[in-house]
């Protein structure tokens, strides 16, 4: 059981990095540093959106509009840290 919980902690850790990558890529696209007409950038952006959107969408629905600033990845990362801490503290 401990091994399974540690695996879940590692998966959550990887997902935090995916959330950070999605946020950074969205900023780079918004500021025209990267162009989505590039096939590679489009595919990476599409993958990151498909992976992160199921977690971020409910947070965005709850959060009020902050004038174009999306804080949902930060809230998601904080929630993931909280879940990881719960798991690690309750390991047998």
Report on this model:
The chain is built from three helices and no strands. It has one domain (2-89). The mean pLDDT is 94. The termini are close together. The protein is 77% helix and 0% strand. The chain has 92 residues and is mainly alpha-helical. Helix 1 (2-30) crosses helix 2, helix 1 runs antiparallel to helix 3 (72-89) and helix 2 crosses helix 3 (72-89).
Radius of gyration: 15 Å
Counting H and I runs of at least 4 residues, what is the number of helices? 3
Q: What fraction of the residues are assigned to beta strands by DSSP?
A: under 5%
Oligomer state of the chains in this structure: single chain
Number of domains: 1
- Arithmetic mean pLDDT: 94
Work out the number of β strands: 0
Distance between the termini: 9 Å
- Estimate percent helicity: over 70%
- Would you tell me the structural class of the helices and strands? mainly alpha
* Parts with pLDDT < 50 across at least 5 consecutive residues: none
Pick out its properties:
92 residues, mainly alpha, 3 helices
What topology does this entry show?
Layout: H1 2-30, H2 39-62, H3 72-89
Could you write a compact summary of the structure shown?
With 92 residues, the protein is mainly alpha-helical.
